[in-house]
């Protein structure tokens, strides 16, 4: 008689973590679910669980481990260096920008706040005039620091199971032959004359379509998004 149990449910926490770090993409997805169910055991080895991953990288497995602990065993995060202060992932900035608030928002899965902070960073990178007017012109994107755009992208990827971020949007656009009119429905954005954020229509959750976040203001056409996704600082990551 079948028990209804999946193979991962019978693995020890050490074996689950090994499969999570070294398994195929399909194995990782299945193991992510099993790790959440084993949150108590995960908390007992919290710091050890992150050893296979680099804080300078964007491996979503590390972000997932941190999010599972935040949801179920938040006290375990105090045993992991940097998580409660600056954030576990390194966030280099050529402009001295503090990314810890954004990393905390993503860790908490407060994607709406993370999106707001992303917009703030883009305005800061664009310069004083963009900050004063409250939005960025496409012509202000090329001089932006590539290091900071890469940091933004890494954080989104690391805390979204690899589903959100500028380079995710760029890869989807490339697969759709550069057609923005095909990209919008694919990532769940809506059209009504101009591209904009619709009250209640945007999904601030992990269940949103791949590439759904961060939201890029399209009120003045697609040139701002085009400039961001083609920025040289992001190209090595696409």
Write the layout of secondary structure elements.
Blueprint (H helix, E strand, L loop, with lengths): L12 H10 L2 H13 L1 H6 L1 H4 L10 H13 L27 H8 L3 H16 L1 H6 L12 H13 L7 H10 L4 H8 L3 E2 L1 E2 L27 H7 L9
Antiparallel strand pairs: 1-2
Please explain how this structure is put together:
The model has no long low-confidence stretch (mean pLDDT 91). This protein starts with 12 loop residues before the first helix and ends in a 9-residue tail after the last helix. It has 2 domains: 10-53 and 71-79, no CATH class; 100-237, Orthogonal Bundle (Arc Repressor Mutant, subunit A), CATH 1.10.10.1770. It contains 12 helices and 2 strands, in the order αααααααααααββα. Strands 1-2 form a two-stranded antiparallel sheet. With 238 residues, the protein is an all-alpha fold. The longest helix has 16 residues, at 111-126. It has helices at 13-22, 25-37, 39-44, 46-49, 60-72, 100-107, 111-126, 128-133, 146-158, 166-175, 180-187, 223-229, and strands spanning 191-192, 194-195. α1 (13-22) packs antiparallel against α2 (25-37), α2 (25-37) packs parallel to α5 (60-72) and α6 packs antiparallel against α7.
List keywords for this structure.
238 residues, mainly alpha, Arc Repressor Mutant, subunit A, 2 domains, two-stranded antiparallel sheet
